[in-house]
Each structure stands twice: as structure tokens, then as C-alpha cells.
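If you are new to this repository, start here. Below is one unmodified record pulled from the training split, so you can see the exact layout before writing a loader.
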Amino acid sequence: MTNSKPVVALKRYERSPDSLRELIGLCGGFDRLKPEHRVFIKPNLVALDDRYPMALYGVFSTTRLVHDMVVLLKELGVSDITIGEGSARGKDYGMPTAGIFRVLGYPLLEERYGVKLVDLLEGPFEDVHFEDFALQVSRPILETDFLINMPALKTHNQAKLSLGLKNLKGSLSLKSRKFCHGRGRALDHHLSLFVEKIRPALTVIDGIYGLEKGPFYLGKAVAMNALAASRDPLGADAAGSALAGIDPETVPHIKEYADRHGLSLDLDDFDFRGTPIQELRRPLRWDSTWREDDTGPRAWDRLGIFGVSMPKYDQTVCTGCSGLYGTILTMVMASYTGAPSTEIEILTGKMMKPSGKAGKTMLLGNCMIKENRKDPSIREAVLVKGCPPSLQSVFDALTRCGIRVREDIYAGFRQTLFDQYKGKEGFDESFFYL
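And here is the target side for that same chain:
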């Protein structure tokens, strides 16, 4: 009798490329792969700050595991391999995907194995219909014969977890990514849809490092040495959730996809093979806590920061502006010398409304400006134009609000975040650089 349960493999990472080879063998990940197939590998290389040092643990899929995947494919005689990502970047900060590839050493994969490297944000795109709307999806992703989805195991401040279903968002054009952060439908709803039209043949979750309070550099990395894989996308994400100590039923986009298709998220309804989950599980905290009055993170209480209000991000904050969120929060913390002469509020996304109490209201990004610039309750509007705004325009706006911008202190803080992993057991930068 055939086992009807989706097969999910779990393995402790021990050595390359054997650990990945054993993992894929456990779930039959290559059973349908043919040497003549066009294979596309989609890692998570979300964004790389090119101004300040940035630790990659848990933020990026490890280059080591991507390299291992290429080695295994070449062993099977596959010659047509493409690696692609559409890394986020701002107007005057962040690297394009090609630059990230160079930093990580991906061009060596071109030289050694003939791999093609693609920036998915450069197109071409194809309109793919979902419900009553269409999204622009990268054509190379759609045209591949065998898509391998290789997300990092990390928490996400807006989506709770960023695993396989979420990683497919990187296949979209910038315009479509912004559409997914609209006010009409929740981000989670869009995340639950991608896999219905962008179907991976194999999902490998890279949990060599996990990330708490992700998805970017303010998160806290954890050495987990955990790998999960499945030909079933839901099974892979259920396993990733369990490895992070999070019930997949509580991850909105995963649950919505399962419910829409009548699928179970009960772990007993999957055929887990390999290392038991309990031997690999490492609970990850997923969200930062805000003050009860939503005027800023609770960390501001410990630092005595008052007179500045920044409500908690919602799902309408696009990736570009969310990348500035941490910069603003930490810049306020780094530069705060006492309550400003007039109360300041900083609004983001597409739905936030001014309180009517602030002397100055900073509207971050074109969406927030369009939403509130004519609101009569705003005493003085400080407009930060752009989609997303430039880093310098953010610094200028903070200065206009009476916050003394100390880039030197902020740079020192970023260096501290980077240095925290140096010499720490289990953390090895060579996992990211070829």
C-alpha cells in the first residue's frame, strides 16, 4: 500500500555535500529530475547593506548549501542550472543582486560549473492571474523544468515566518511586490497564493542558522545546523515551523493555504524521515514588542526615550520602507539626548493616521504622504518623499524634527551587531563566502 502522507526529510547538517545528499535522498527529492532538465535554484538573499557591516547568519541562505546543491546536480549530469534572486535595494543604499552574487563568490559557480546567475528584478516578467488580479512573475522561474526553492529558516516581523511559501515573493517584479503590501488584501493572503502558480519541485529549508526577530540585520541569529526538505511545499514549511518551535497553524499565510486546499497541518499527517524534529528544534522568538500605547518599542522605555512616537509596522509597509524602519529606530536610540522641544510622530505604510497630538508628523514614503498630507490634525508635516525614500532624506527629516543625527554612533551600533558573532561557537563566516 502506498503511503499517502507527504514525505518530509530532516537532517542535521554535518558536512558538505553529504548532508544535503542524504537529506534529498530521504524525501526522494530528485526522483523526478532528469539530466536534460532546466533547473532553477531560488535562495533567499533578501538584501545587503553596502554602507555598514552586516552579519549574514540567518538572514541569507548559506552559500555553502547552494554550492552543495550545484555539486549534487552536476553529479546527476544536469548541465542547465540557473541561480536567481531579486534582492531588495533602496535609492542610495543596498546592493543589486549582481553585487551580492559577487560579494558571496557566486561567480565561481559560473566558472567551475557553468551556472547562470540572474537578477530576477531585471525581468522579463509574465502576467500571472491570481483570483481577480495579476502579478508579474519572473519568466525564467515560470519556464524552468525543475524549481528548487532554498529559503533560509527565519522569523519575519510581518509574516511571522519566512520559509518556502514566503521565499517565492522574490520571484515577483518590484511593482507586484508593492501590490502585495496593499491595504485591500492582507500580505498573508498574497503569500498563501504564490505556490499555486509558482510550484517548486523541491523545497530545501536552510536552517544551518536560524534568525529570531527577523528578517534582517536587527534579528538575532541562532546556530541550529538543521535542514529540512520535501517535494511537498506545505510539508517543508510545516517542518520549518516546527523547527522554529512555532505551530504552523499559527502562521497565517501557511494556514490560509492549507485551509483553502483542505490540507492538514497536523504534524502527524506528514511522513517525517531522518533526524527527529525534537533533536533539531530550537524555539525562535519572532516579533518585537511595542509599548501598550503603540508609540515605540518597549526597548525605548529602558532607554528613557519619550517625546518621539513611531507606531508598530503593519503589513502595508513595503520592503523598501521596512528596510528603513530599523535604521530610524536605531538612529533615534543612537542619537537621543532628551525629549525634543515638540512631540514627534513617525508614520509609515499606507494606513497609519496622525494622532493630532504631535507638533511634527514625519510621513515616510510616497504612500504615507498621499494618505495624510492634507490631514487637518497635522500641525507640521515633515515629508520624506520617495518609494522608498533615500537614506539621506530620512536623516534630513529626522534633523528637521529636532533629532540630532549621529551617524558615528549609529555606525558603532551596526559594528556591534556585526561583531557579536565573532569567535562565537557555531558561527563561521565561510558558510557564506566561496
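Two things worth knowing about this chain: The first helix runs from residue 18 to 27. The longest strand covers residues 202-212.
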